[in-house]
Every structure is written in C-alpha cells, then in structure tokens.
Design a protein that fits this description.
It comes from Candidatus Sherwoodlollariibacterium unditelluris. Strands 8, 9, 10, 11, 12, 13, 14, 15, 16 and 17 form a 10-stranded mixed beta sheet that branches. Strands 1-4-5-7-6 form a 5-stranded mixed beta sheet. The chain has a two-stranded antiparallel ribbon with strand order 2-3. It is 37% helix and 17% strand. The chain is an alpha/beta fold.
C-alpha cells in the first residue's frame, strides 16, 4: 500500500544517506577518576593505610578507538562469511585489555562451527589468541573476546578508590581487578571461604597474591586480622616480613610449613572449644559477646612444593581446614604454578570451590583448575578467569597491578605504628590443641604474675608479653575468671582484677624467698 502523499525526493535522499546505527559500543575510560577515601582511617590508635601510599594511574591516552572497534567488527563478520556463516555483531564491550564482540548468528547456524574457527578468527584479527563463549551465559548471542591492540594496566589504586571497595563494610574484601566492561570486581573471602589460584610463570599469579594481601590490610588492623604466610620460593612474600599482621615470620622452609599448617589445625580446634563455651555458632556471634577473635588467613604461594615434601600430611591438613575452619574465621589462599592432578587433587579441589586461573600451559590444566577449557587461551600478565562458589559462569578479569615500591611504602607505614608479636609455638610445633578446659596451662602461674604486675587483665597483654596465640591466652584468662582472679569481659572496658594485687604480689615474693636454695 503506497502513501497518498507525494514523495519528497530531497527528504528521501537525506534519509538514504543517514548512517544507521548497527553496533552498540560500550567502551569505558581505561582509568577511572580516583576518589578521595571517604571514611576515617583510624581504628583505635591504629591508622589504616591511605590511598596516597599507592601510585596514581596515568591519564588515559586520547585514542580513536570507536573506528577501530567498528572496523574489527566488520573484519569479524567477513571472516565468518568466508566460511559460510552468517552472523552480525550487535554489541561491543571494551575493557582495559580485552574487547568482547557479541555476535547474533543467523537462524540454523550451529554454534560448534563458530567455536572451531577460533584460530582463523585470531589470524584475521591479528590477535595472539581469541576466546569464544558459545553462547554467552544468559544471552542468545556468541561472545568473541579479542585482545586490544593497545592494552592498559589496571592499577590497584583504581579499584581501591571505587565505590564498590570504599563503601563495603565487609572485612575480608578482596580486590581482584576489572572485568571486560571496566567494572571493578571485588569478592568476599568469608563467602568463598577459601581460594585456589593457579597460573604459569609470568601469568600474574604472584602479583595477584600481593594485591589480595594489600586488599586485606587496607581494611583491617593487626588486632582484627592475622596472617600465616608460607613462601617456599623465598622471594615472593618476603616484602611482607615484619608486618604486624603476621603470626610468625614468613615461612620459607617446606618442612616447617607443614608444622605451621598443623598449628593452624590445632588453632581451629581450640577456637571451636571457645565458641562452644560461649554458645556462639560462628566467629561473628562470638566477637559480639567476647574479646574480639581475629581472622586468620593462611597464604601459600607455591603449594606444589609442600605437596612434594609431605604430600599426605599437607593434603590432610588442608582438607581439615577447608572443611571446618570457616565458622571460626580461618581462611586459605593457595597458589600454584603447577596445577596438575598430583597437586590440585580431587579432595583439595572439592573443598576449594572459589578458583582463579591465570594462563596455563594446556587445556588439561585448565580443566583441572576450572573444570572447563579457557585458561589456556588467556594472554598472561594479569589476564584471569574467576569462578565464584556455586556458579558455573566464568568471569574474565584483568588483575590489578601493584609494584614492589607500593608494597614497601604500605608495609613501612604499618610497621611504623606497631611491631609484630610472633607466636613462637607455630614453628616449634608446640600447639597443645588437646588441653581440656579443666587442665591448668603450664604458663598459668607466669600469666597471673604478668597480670598482677601490670594491673591489666587482657588477652592482648599475654599475647605480647608471653608470645602466645590468641586462643591459648584467652583460655588462660578464662581460667583466671573461673578461679575468681579477674572479672568477666565487659566490652571495651578492661577486666577488673578481683583480688588484692599488693597482697598477692607480697605473698608471691615471700613464697619465693622461703623456697630452699
């Protein structure tokens, strides 16, 4: 049916020349504006690190990326057309390092035909490698992920300055990086509750571990969070040596590493006794009633070395911790550059549902870590795939970049405020996890003497003066309370000493002098 109005040839010509929008391009600025940290950086007398300690990202370069993206979209469509596959690029999402082209295949096109063309697409796009999502989870489209010709780093300050990281009240928040759309990706370690990281040499695995440590110490004081760091390679975690958050110096001996893991197992059992006595289901409920129990994060930078030295014992310790330690605030971060089935066993993988994979050597290694292919097609240098617990959808992320100078500035700032209080039981294997609540601790008398002389009845003073772990010091304080020496816990107020200090000290001195020499 034709219109009864006469056609205006001038208007018709203008409409035919007007460009029709066919591709929606979503390209965010590579470097987002860094915001001033809004919250007060103080917990008691302790000051949290400031963003000023981190490097300022360079300004984004002015580049005509829109034309390049549209040209690449045409190349992609033409390449598929050469193989008799009709598909249209409908959306383009450009991230810091990766651009995803979303294809809408014509009816009747088998997705397997597109998947088999990954090498041909990489050749036509002049790319190192491409990754194909067929289909994109939750969409009726196919995703082609292609490296940018000029990639950009994701600086850790960008993610730390984001609203997602700043406004969260979660203590164990990890800043992983940015996804392909430029959105910061953060995750709660308490929800994971353990994390497996794999990747070959140079893939960005160690930089990721360093950025996770910075994420945790930017949010937590040494009283709220403790680390047990195991570094058989002797170089990767050494910049954190002397950090007040450490329970012991960074462990570099693989044989001592098992002793440290065994101590953590004993600490877990002791914490369960404390929670049972307080009638608390988890560490959050316990901390509302009692003196605050700090989180413990165990970081192993090269898990394969531990498995090669003491395979059965290490696997048993990791299995127990992974199964039971979540409720008492103990979490594991295990990293390895050899993700073979001999290292990442079925038992370990089943208990570490949250996984990060950087570039690996083969599809077999990718399936070992993620249960699917894809990690072998990554680019390296921070390009990762993240699998959240309970999900099958992989998130592609460009990891944050953190330099040694930034780590040194942050660690020096924290060390200037406090010294580490090491627990000497950890590396000596002296954890007495089997002490009953009625059995008197061998350090009980010495602890009472310290409390009376200092006139301070607290767990922290016993930790500092006697170099004990929190749970053992807390148990000794509970014994004193049961015997009527000190009063109950009263929140922020110190415990009251219920006996005459001067009389007790005089009686103790008299007993020492009366002892036969």
């Amino acid at each position: 049916i034709k219109s009864i109005l006469p056609e205006n040839p001038k208007i018709a010509k203008e409409e035919s020349l007007a460009p029709k929008p066919r591709i929606q391009i979503k390209a965010k600025s590579v470097v987002s504006e860094v915001k001033v940290r809004p919250q007060e950086l103080k917990i008691g007398e302790y000051h949290l690190p400031s963003l000023e300690l981190l490097d300022v990202p360079p300004p984004p370069e002015a580049r005509k990326i829109k034309e390049d993206l549209e040209a690449n979209a045409r190349i992609l469509e033409d390449t598929l057309e050469d193989f008799n596959i009709t598909a249209k690029v409908t959306d383009i999402e450009r991230g810091p390092v990766i651009t995803r082209y979303e294809l809408e295949p014509a009816p009747g096109v088998k997705l397997s035909r597109i998947v088999t063309l990954s090498d041909d697409i990489a050749l036509s796009m002049k790319a190192q490698s491409v990754r194909i999502l067929a289909p994109i989870p939750g969409k009726d489209r196919v995703g082609i992920e292609v490296p940018n010709s000029q990639g950009s780093f994701v600086y850790i300050r960008e993610v730390f300055a984001s609203n997602e990281f700043q406004k969260t009240k979660i203590s164990l928040m990890l800043a992983l990086g940015k996804d392909i759309t430029g959105q910061p990706i953060i995750a709660d370690l308490a929800d994971m509750p353990h994390l497996l990281i794999a990747g070959t040499t140079g893939s960005g695995k160690t930089v990721c571990v360093n950025s996770l440590v910075l994420s945790l110490i930017f949010k937590n004081s040494p009283a709220d969070l403790k680390f047990v760091m195991i570094d058989p390679k002797m170089v990767e975690l050494m910049p954190f040596n002397g950090l007040p958050h450490l329970l012991c110096p960074v462990v570099t001996d693989s044989k001592k590493a098992y002793t440290a893991l065994n101590w953590v197992v004993g600490e877990m059992e002791e914490r369960y006794r404390l929670l049972a006595k307080a009638g608390a289901r988890n560490i959050g409920v316990y901390n509302e009633k009692q003196e605050k129990l700090p989180f413990i994060v165990v970081i192993v930078d090269e898990f394969a070395d531990l498995m090669s030295v003491a395979r059965d014992q290490t696997e048993a310790a990791v299995q127990r911790l992974a199964q039971l330690s979540r409720a008492v605030g103990i979490h594991l971060i295990l990293a390895t550059q050899r993700p073979s089935v001999n290292v990442v066993t079925g038992v370990i993988k089943a208990n570490l549902p949250a996984r990060v994979s950087f570039k690996v050597a083969s599809k077999v290694d990718s399936r070992t870590v993620l249960d699917m292919n894809g990690a072998d097609k990554l680019l390296g240098k921070g390009d990762m795939l993240f699998l959240r617990p309970g999900e099958s959808k992989l998130i592609r992320i460009q990891g944050t970049l953190v330099s040694d100078k930034e780590i040194r500035r942050v660690v020096d700032f924290i060390k200037s405020q406090a010294e580490p209080v090491y627990n000497e039981e950890i590396l000596k294997g002296q954890q007495k996890s089997g002490i009953s609540s009625d059995e008197k601790d061998e350090f009980y008398d010495e602890a009472v003497k310290i409390i009376m002389e200092s006139n301070q009845a607290s767990v922290s003073i016993l930790q500092r003066r006697m170099r004990l772990g929190y749970t053992r010091a807390a148990r000794i304080i509970d014994m004193m309370e049961a015997e009527g020496l000190v009063g109950p816990y009263e929140g922020s107020k110190p415990r009251r000493i219920l006996i005459d200090r001067e009389a007790w000290l005089k009686d103790t001195i008299d007993r020492i002098e009366d002892k036969p020499r």
